[in-house]
Amino acid sequence: MQHSGPVNASSEAARQPWVVGISGASGTPYAAAVINGLLDAGEAVDLVVSKSARLTILDETGLAWRDAHWREDLAVLLGRDISSADVAIWAHGDFAAGPSSGSYPAKGMVVVPASTAAVAGIAMGLSKDLLQRSADVTMKERRPLVVCVRETPLTTSTLEHMLTLDRAGAVVLPCNPAFYHGPTQMQQLVDFVAGKVLDVVGVTHDLFTRWEGRLGAARA
Ligand SMILES: Cc1cc2nc3c(=O)[nH]c(=O)nc-3n(C[C@H](O)[C@H](O)[C@H](O)COP(=O)(O)O)c2cc1C
Predict the structure, then answer these.
(1) Which of 119, 144, 156, 188 could bond to 183 as cystine, CB 3.0-4.6 Å?
(2) For a substitution probing ligand 1, which of 115, 129, 159, 161 has the most ligand atoms within 8 Å of its CB?
(3) Quick one: how far is CA 113 from the chain centroid?
């Protein structure tokens, strides 16, 4: 497919999006929650969906992702209407896409969920598709890169790739929800992880209740 974004040339100059890469790991709801959180905060999003992610999106949501109808499909995934200024999408094989270049005014990138293949590819600088190339560009430009790895257990090589990413300045943020905020619904677990992502990139949100310390703990 030809790249389809950004489509609104007049707003392009002012637009400084976060690139969100969805790779083929389990965790479509995490991606949706991060994108919704960015949009709720008034941030623009450039989306890159890897080829393999179509399978996970299909398995986890029943949604057959169609590049030609991405806006409708994304609206279903996010549960909201989206404008061309809010979200642009780039084809996974489009190395002429904006996020493929350091001169593109992206604020940074979140890979959510990140497959171990994506973790390896980014750590080794493979740039085998636009998602990996965008992450590589984000690191070389010293912009924030959050890699939300989703696999368990982890192999030695994935652990080494995660260490490589950390040393290169990326934040490795495993899709590990916590339970101390008393979640009773799956969305609360999803939102916890999405909120941690937004914390890292400095985007305001109210996706979870913050721990403020237990009364008496300071006296113990
Ligand atoms: C239903 C499904 C679930 C998967 N879940 C994971 C996962 O949680 N973590 C992972 O690393 N790979 C997972 N995979 C395998 C990746 O999709 C596969 O390694 C793929 O090559 C990743 O490519 P990408 O990084 O270009 O998206 C899953 C595959 C399928 C079909």
Answers:
(1) 188
(2) 115
(3) 6
